[in-house]
Design goal:
13 strands, 14 helices, single chain, alpha/beta, about 375 residues, 2 domains, binds pyridoxal-5'-phosphate, transaminase activity, Aspartate Aminotransferase, domain 1, globular, Aspartate Aminotransferase, domain 2
Amino acid sequence: MADRIAVNDLRRHAISTETAVRTSVERVLNSGWYVLGQEVEAFEREFSDYCGVGHCVGVASGTDAIELGLRALGVGRGSRVATVANAGCYTTTALMALGAEPVFVDVDRDAKLMDLGHLKQILSEAALDAVVVTHLFGLLHDMESILDLTARAGVPVFEDCAQAHGARRGGRHAGSFGAAAGFSFYPTKNLGAVGDGGAVVTGSADVAGQVRRLRQYGWESRYRVGVSGGRNSRLDEVQAAVLRAKLPLLDGWNRRRRDIAARYTREIHDPRVRCPAVHGEEYVAHLYVVVTEDREALRAHLAEAAVMTDVHYPVPDHRQPVLTGAGGPVAALPVTDELSASIVTLPCYPELSDEEVTRVIAHVNAW
Ligand SMILES: *Cc1c(COP(=O)(O)O)cnc(C)c1O
């Protein structure tokens, strides 16, 4: 049987980046300085330049980036924050940590992103303190339309860019549209560290300063705790040095991901499998997700052919036990529910060979 094709294979990524990563890690080991130093400062500068925003603050994870970024925008206990329920529950986890209430917005069937009609309706019904827009699967949402709606209501927008590093629309990068944005550098992300990491980017010096205090105990200066809600959530020097080595390669990896995704969409012909549209630079193909009514049969057929698949994500936020346990009403999110039962993720990562892509396509078409 042919070799197994995994949904992602970080060993291949490690081999392709080995020399650069090894040099970076050794530089940090030899420096004797491991937390919040020159590497983090340099990465923050390089990543904010890359995104085209004024400020970047490294933190310990993507979930922390959402939590601390929202706190810096004024979200806290009792705040109401609109978000989608199909994005892995990370934003909802951050909201629970803040004591804020998630207000779930349904998604649209094709892009699988926040439904603007539903958002508009929610904005008209009750006051919100923020909106989190997730560029899910690597597709940058239509930020102009969203900002048009939210600006009229005076509600700040936070972008969750954990799957969208480098996505662009009209020359502007993911993370440069909202009041602030969060990134994750978890190893499987389009820009991944060799451990956990995250960042908040923002055009506001005030928001950046607040996140800098919050990530380090709430210190306004050393050992002087000036703001509440502070934590220890720092990006370390090893991760920052690795990210600096990989950042110049990100656009090339994203092109390769997009080419693989475009081939899938053009060459998969089974009428029972609905593929995403072919996109331009606004899509960085973090995950390639198709929709089918008979998910288990497709997954079993592909597994038989040694093509691995996954589901991102099987449990929508509004149906997570942590939220339904209290027995309150469950939000009506028909499209989110429908998609959670019918989405399948196919292998899509830069190190996949053309021949493997051909095999995936052939096996889907042979279903
Ligand atoms: C990975 C991810 C996060 C969380 O990032 P961590 O670094 O794992 O905390 C948040 N949002 C989305 C959409 C993600 O994919």
